[in-house]
Design goal:
The structure holds 3 protein chains of 3 kinds. Chain B is of the alpha/beta class. Helix content of chain B is 42%, strand content 11%. A 5-stranded mixed sheet of chain B has the order 6-5-9-7-8, with helices on one face. Chain B has a 4-stranded parallel sheet with strand order 3-2-1-4, sandwiched between helices. Chain C folds into 2 domains: 63 residues, Orthogonal Bundle (Arc Repressor Mutant, subunit A); 80 residues, Glutaredoxin (3-Layer(aba) Sandwich), CATH 3.40.30.10. In chain C, helix 1 packs antiparallel against helix 2, helix 2 packs across helix 3 and helix 3 crosses helix 4. The chains are: A alpha+beta, B alpha/beta, C alpha+beta.
Amino acid sequence: MVKVTIDGVEIEVEEGTTILNAARQAGGDIVPPAMCYYTGLEGSGGKCRSCLVEVAAGSERDPRPMPKLMASCRTEVQHGMVVKNKTSERVIDAREGVTEFLLINHPLDCPICDQAGECDLQDLSFKHGVEWSRFEEEKRTFAPRDIGDKIKLHMNRCIMCYRCVFVAQQLTNKRVHGVLNRGDRSEISTYIEQALDSDFIGNVIDVCPVGALTDKTFRFKSRVWFLKPMNAHRDCPTCQGIATVWMFGNEIYRVTGRKDKYSEIERHNGKTAWICDTCRFETKDVAKWVIEGPRIINRYSVISTNHYTNENPLDAKKDPKKLQ
Amino acid sequence: MGRKLLLEHINVPGIETFDVYRKHGGYSAVEKALKTMSPEDVVEEVKKSGLRGRGGAGFPTGLKWSFIAKPEGVERHLLCNADESEPGTFKDRYLMQYIPHLLIEGMIVSSYALGANLSYIYIRGEYMFVLDILEKAIAEAYEKGFLGKNILGSGYDLDLRVTPGAGAYICGEETALIESLEGKRGNPRIKPPFPAVKGLWGRPTVVNNVESIATVVPIINMGADEYGKIGTEQSHGTKLISACGNLERPGVYEIELGMTVEEFIYGDDWCRGIKNGKKLKALIPGGSSVPILPHYLITKTAKGEVRNMSYESLSDGGFATGSMLGSGGFIAFDEDQCIVRNTWNFARFYAHESCGQCSPCREGTGWMDKVLHRLEHGKGTLRDIDMLEKVNKRIEGNTICPLGDAAAWPVAAAIRHFREEFEWHVSNPEEAQKHNFGLSREVTFS
Amino acid sequence: MRVERKIVHKERPVLSEEAKVEIQKVIQNYPEGKKKSAILRTLFIVQREAGGWLSPDTMDMVAEILEIEPIEVYEVATFYTMFNLDPVGQYVLEFCHTGPCMLVGSDQIIKYTEEKLGIKMGETTPDGMFTLKEAECLGACGYGPMLQCGKYYHEHLTPEKVDELIEACRRGEVKTN
């Protein structure tokens, strides 16, 4: 076990734990945001830079500070490390910067986006963004691309977290989509017209932090905060069948994996409970599920406002910020 | 003229062939190292020489070598970074094109020092014609027993291959180079782990610039002590400088570190001043990513001392009034050049070359490109200039690899020293399309 | 904005025996099981064989040769600028337009060539002879303005030299490989 201090909170974690996961173990508001890191996906993280933290002391043995801000999702803790997250002005500024960068080319079409209400980018903007933009240029856009009848790709909203690529790589037997081009023209694409089709590919929807990949079987059916999330399970030959069903009255509108407060799929029976495409897209008959009861959506987001939660996300006090 | 260690025989006809190269003392460093020195001796010698990486960052080469992990039964690799793509830099191509055996000799000695049995030269795809030259030279070296199994009866085996890039500046970053060599997109890796521990195919790897590797040859031949006597206290040996821009005589020069900048620009043996008798307006001494210097900070530092061509003197004054030796891409601007246009040009370059992996670089470089494009074309506002500075700071240091810094520094430095010219572009948009601002006003430092 | 790509022709370019041998030799440059490393050089060979550009079919063929998924080839081919994803003319003239070349007049040379051939950068002449492209720094900063045609560099360009080069191309006298 190694001892690490994050924003003055001292915790002991197992060796090899990343700063981000150490902070998550401690919990509370010292946890840095993460837009691209995803625990269940090997190799993810390090890209969005929203989890940057200041390492004020590297370790007990070598207490020198690290000169650059470090990606907390990919930096392992050392014994005696001192980390500053929300207590570091450099971190706050960098995070505001990242938020701004992620938003400049984002279409800001939340009113017509299915992800609205449970969107990590919304949450990040709410905490670290400003109400207006100093970006006056034309926004970058991509040509629409059809990737099949179950999943909708809306590339303009993408923040290039690469999570969906890892899903295809690690959960399916054939990856047909990937990252094409480079720089600010990078896009998620299949290059040639091709449908994403494989037992577990629907999980790209669950891992997508924004509304770039959404469920076509749920598209425009309802706003997520009007639905009642229920824990449910079923016997499924393909996956563990442990899911959240989103209901309106007695009808299931959509099925997703069970996400925790960091919007990651929970682990059950020792492994991440990814659900299969049959459960997700084709099992919307209530009779096919065993409804366990209401699911607490315990995360910092709009979606929590009307539901079974004890955390009110809208109580954050924000100073009016000035950019210029 | 100073001493020439790398380019001494560059003008000898046929020096690109094994026989001529050998006749002029070539491959003696291989003989010396493999026959009389242990790999550790070679590492020690390079450490002692004070050689600093010639690719741009200036990290001590010997120290880098000493970091390589040596787990039992795992192969190690040496990769030569010949992805020279930094605007203003063309020294590595010159060296490889005209004296390829020098690099091969350096590769053999360096690979021996690191215990690598399979080494690669990763050359940028645009240099395909140089790749042909290198492969021809490598074939000769195999034939003469300097590559392959049991080199010179020493028991040391080495295979050397050349592998091309295909048009990506970012592959000059060592982990991006490794990714590219593995046949992937050139996305830099998140460090740690560093290549010295987990590099090519997960094996311990060292990546060195062409010139650094070539310089190992004279270091071994003359000994670290002798080599260390050349240059200044902190900058040892000689350095290839690729001089370009508005100079009377651009080209690749080998200089002894420590010669004055003034001599290099105006000396008869060197660049012979600014083309067409014009005045020098600005200088980028180390490739496009290092800060630009205005005319009054080129030959003298802010303190009024003579500025010379060395790591320490060029960076004297920090980023406020100094720059960096970088890769030695020496770009001179005459009085008729437009700094705003050039800054936009570089911003466009970095936006074009960003791999797109991390948000500050992907979005930030594209943003700067667009804003500078507006400024250059008379559609900017004064607010844009301040905003550029702020955007800049949010990219710098927050990215996965140094490309973010490389994109941010030139913009920051241009605004720092040439703000007046930027403002003039805003307030006189029509005039700015027709003629240039001219020299900037001298600032005195107390 | 790019148009949707479809596999339009199921006829893959037939590789010459020579090219096949060349590819096998390239694969030998990398250790056993590291075939993927040969991708860039293989793409160069295949692009050369397929008339200077890479169609989806051509890339699928590379995927087969290297035993990887087609998407892995698309990802790589779209990352590096030297691969043409659309058909190009017989001679591709790539002008360096980065800082150091700009300082010595690349803008004027580019404009001159565009006017001479009556096409813009990124376009191909109607006769399919020339494609003009802009390239970022090609590492010939001291010898600019310059362009790359095929494998080779043409440096210290002047309008007269551009004229000469274009004429020589038309006569089929310019070496590209």
